[in-house]
Amino acid sequence: MKAFDIAEGIKVLVYGEPMDTGAVVCRRGNETVAAGAFVVETGPEASRLSLGLGMKDIVYGLGANLGGINKRGRKYESYCTDEPVHSEEKKRLYAAHNFLMVAGDEVMGFFIDFPGLISYDIGCSDKDALIIDVAGTDFAVYEIEGRNEDEVVQRFHSIIGRSYVPPRWGLGYFQSRWGYETSKDVRRVRKSFDDLQIPLEGIYLDLDYMEDFKDFSVSDERFPDMEEMVREFREDGVYIIPIIDAGVKIEKGYDIYEEGIIGDHFVKTEAGKPYVAAVWPGKVHLPDFLRPETRKWWGEKYKVLTDLGIEGFWNDMNEPAIFYDEEELEKAVDAAIASKGANLGVLKYFELKDLFKDMGNRERYYRTFYHQVDGKVVVNEKVHNLYGQNMTVAAGEGLRKILGKRHVLISRASSTGMHRHSGIWTGDNSSWWSHLELNVRMMPSVNMAGFYYVGADTGGFGNSTTWELLTRWLQFSAFTPLLRNHSAIGNDFQEPYIFGEEVTSWNREIIRARYSLIPYIYSEMMKSVIDGSMMFRPLSFLYKDESSRDTEDQLLLGKELMLAPVTRPNASGRTAYLPEEMAEVTLKDGKAAMEVVHAGLRRFEYGLDSLKFYLRKDSILPYCTPAKNTMSLDIGKLHAIAFVDRVAEYELYDDDGESYGYENGESFTTAIKVTRHGQDFSVEVRNDNPKVMEIAVDILGTDGVRARKTITI
Predict the structure, then answer these.
(1) Within a domain: 373
(2) Which domain of life is it from (predicted)?
């Protein structure tokens, strides 16, 4: 083991000869003599890291994985896996985010930089121990100290680099479904939103738009007017965002397949032949995204669709998911044929059933194909978590070069390092109340891992949602940067207008409220990206009492808001814990109403026709009049609410919303300050944003005194 200083409070311990995964962007400093926090045992092919846990230590992190905000008492695995039915017994999901933080008397963060399987036993087998099993001997452990949780996270983000930023329109409301089978279906959905005056930013297209599931193709039969539709929609501020999958159909004459063969772009078997897997088109080859030449080739292919006017994409099936390979399919079919006419007992029946049922994503598959990495042949199992990352790096780099401006890009599979190139959705969830709860708990963890443009499939992807679950989920997703309602073919439709007039009116109001909050959400996302702070935080980051430490269904958003979503059915409200006095805010009909609520455990009513949340003391929330999309959003006449004890301040960040100028500090600031003077208040505004002309501030004092001040700029 060798140890190196990185920066103040950060060191790295290097075991063996780890590969460069692309996660860390900083350089190592001088070699130092330092012991690590873990006890490390290294064997011939694997390593174990052990750390004692104090009774009250909280363990945070692991990004988009299962469990609570506090990860104690459970086992986890970091190995990107297509796992749509992520029920309680599962250990792994689509992402591999290997940052975790132990907070007790002291706070320390750890990042395990390793591209293969990592298993975590966090106070499960032994309640007083954190045990990490690394499936290899070449890895690095970054240890990060800090005065508190926020400082540790910021220091971690300083070594992994600044996160991807979407254009402002990426924060709008998006409708999606696997099952919009024709352009007529897509046009019908868009017209329904228009007719019902529900805001709409864009429509995601699943596999339906492709010709025979072939990447970078458009079906002439089902989408004959794709370019015309994209142009028409775009003129009205509505975007089309198509899917791209990792598997390339094996078909003579298909240009992507032919170029992939000629350019040697596909992963290989041990014998050196292109590996054959199977996904949506049937038999496919998988591009070797770990090769720079393949990433460049793949990234340039997005131009086929950007030439149609498309400016956003979602990368899917890039764990990579594999339905079957030829060997497993043949084995299962042979067993079925041999069983024809047989009297199968229970054991033989289950044995036969499992041959088919468990055929997808078998771990054996990932031990049978190989990558070219820096001139070496490496089996996928050893670098598995880099596959989806490098597919998305290819897309991000290609789109930046092609478009020359920001684009929307999200990926299903991810690992740390990919955060610099795209956002993520949290995977193929289900229409379960427990998955709404999981969405809430995931948000701080994915922020810790470096991802800000994040959201879940609102309403749930698998199974059929209910009107109540969709509306309650919208009430939470209204605050997440990515807001996409997505569902699967074979399940009921779940557009916000599906469940009758009354529910439609509620969902319309929630989506309109989201558009009112976009200036604030965009501001908070950008400030987090720039300074490496977290956008969503657990209450326990700020408040150190036992109730805050135990609370996992409420979150802090920015420095101003506390969210307390309803995550149970048939509920007219909920009980929330307020660590301090706050203002309860109801946002409805484009207006925000405030009431003082004292600290403690409080029951509050939360209807289905508005947004309700809490504004912290001496805080200001800016918002605007809702609009049908971001192109129509106007911040010329800005609104704000302030809950004031003595002095409240807020700086609203803004920029052009589409260029990379923010990387060079090109931005605008509208700074609002409200000061209490006895029974009155004064408002000061410092502004360099030419779009802001007027600010109307509604003020609530902690003693209930109210005032309204309007500032003309």
Answers:
(1) no
(2) Bacteria
